[in-house]
Design brief:
By secondary structure, the chain is α+β, with helices and mostly antiparallel strands. Helix content is 48%, strand content 6%. The longest helix has 22 residues, at 94-115.
């Protein structure tokens, strides 16, 4: 089923409440355009199943061939299924899929906020989500696409400048900056003049 932005918003509020809806919806729009049966075979084809059963069969077939596969609304990567305790079929469920995305975003922000602050930490979180690295998502354009989607949806007035990977914040001792207690994902409205997705 292809979900509208309004339907994705409701699902995000219900199923991924630990992360601001304004952070989840642009990710889903960018990842799957709201298609809960979307399948991306990494270094292979992007396919769409007609049903969850058909999709699960396709995913298992490609995984057996050594591919990793991105599944569902938020394109959860198959390497996370066992660690997050879900079956292939469960990963296709829209609510479960968004809950998994919330978990991955929270984990990513935990790491990103050790090295970056403000919008850079949010952007690095999106980079981690897409590439598994803090910086490659800047270079491949993914972070820019997320911010453009957020702007197009009205979550922010304009995308922040994305010139490349932000510099890692390093203290005088050479250690990465520690996360503060306020570095956590929160549900909140993005103000028209500032990003208030995180505290």
């Amino acid at each position: 089923m292809i979900h509208t932005v309004a339907a994705i918003t409701v699902l995000a509020q219900r199923c991924a409440g630990e992360v601001a809806t304004e952070a989840v919806v642009p990710l889903v729009v960018t990842e799957s355009a709201g298609d809960d049966l979307s399948i991306n075979v990494n270094r292979g084809p992007r396919v769409r199943a007609g049903s969850v059963a058909e999709g699960a069969g396709l995913v298992r077939r490609y995984m057996a061939q050594g591919y990793t596969v991105d599944v569902g609304l938020a394109q959860i990567n198959s390497t996370n299924f066992a660690r997050l305790g879900v079956t292939v079929e469960q990963a296709f469920d829209p609510c479960t899929n968004l809950r998994l995305a919330s978990t991955l975003l929270q984990e990513g922000y935990g790491l990103a906020s050790r090295h970056y602050s403000g919008l850079d930490a949010i952007s690095a979180t999106y980079s981690l989500y897409n590439t598994g690295t803090l910086t490659r998502g800047f270079r491949n354009g993914y972070v820019g696409r997320i911010w453009s989607a957020a702007s197009g949806l009205g979550s922010i007035q304009a995308p922040p400048p994305i010139l490349g990977a932000p510099a890692v914040a390093v203290a005088a001792t050479g250690a990465a900056k520690p996360p503060s207690d306020g570095d956590s994902w929160v549900v909140g409205q993005i103000a028209s003049d500032a990003i208030e997705v995180f505290k």
